[in-house]
From TrEMBL:
Keywords: DNA-binding. InterPro entries: Homeodomain-like_sf, HTH-type_TetR-like_transc_reg, HTH_TetR. Residues 32-51 bind DNA. It comes from the Bacteria. It holds the Pfam family TetR_N. Signal peptide: none annotated. This is TetR/AcrR family transcriptional regulator. Residues 9-69 form the HTH tetR-type domain.
Amino acid sequence: MTKLPYHRQNLATLIQQQARQQLEEQGAEKLSLRQIARFLAVTPAAVYRHFPDKASLLAALRVEITEELAAALRAGVLDSADATAMLQRMVSNLLAFAAAHPRAVRFVLTAPLAAPQSLTTVLALVNAQRQVTGSPTDTTAVWTLLVGVLCQLPNPQLTAKWLTTQVLSLLNHE
């Protein structure tokens, strides 16, 4: 077991990093604060000072993963002026994130996951570019479809192109 030096100010960060690694490797159900303490060569009490229980650590991880997912969705989306290409890029980003972090995605899907603002923006651009009036429920419907797809992964038949086509159909644009 490798002993890592730490300073009081960064122990919470180290705990969260180790917890994320455990979550990615074993899933949330096997996450152990005592194992984290052992790995970091600190007492369990030191871990519990920063995270009083597993639930509080999982809540911090949920926020972290949700923020990473939202950032991943936005990555490179504005590289194109075409709204449909933006949508396809966003869908590709979502599938890539899910492939790279399957246990993290499974974990965040155990609680309600709000649609990211970037999706609302891209859908508004798709509607504007196609000169169609969107519905206030478009984002909810599309996000529900995308989250449903995440629950089906991995599935090689679910490609970004296919999924983008389904989203456009859902929006009644094609």
